[in-house]
Amino acid sequence: MFLKKLKAAEDRYREIEQMLTLPSVISNNKEYQKLIKEYNGLSTVVEKFREYSACEAAMNDADLMMRDASLEPEFRELAEAEFHETRDKLALLLDELKLLLVPRDPNDSKNVVVEIRQGAGGEEAALFAQDLYRMYSMYSTSLGYKIDVMSLNETELGGIKFISFTVMGDGAYSRLKFESGVHRVQRIPVTESNGRIQTSTVTVAVLPEADEVEVEINPSEIKIESCKSSGAGGQHINKTESAVRLTHIPSGLVIECDQERSQLQNKEKAMRILYAKLYDMKQREQTDAIASQRKSQVGSGDRSEKIRTYNFPQSRVTDHRINKTIFSLAAFLNGNMDEIIGDLSAQEAAERLKGEE
Question: What is the DSSP string of 101-167?
Answer without folding.
Answer: HSPPPTTTTS-EEEEEEE-TTTHHHHHHHHHHHHHHHHHHHHTT-EEEEEEEEE-TTS-EEEEEEEE
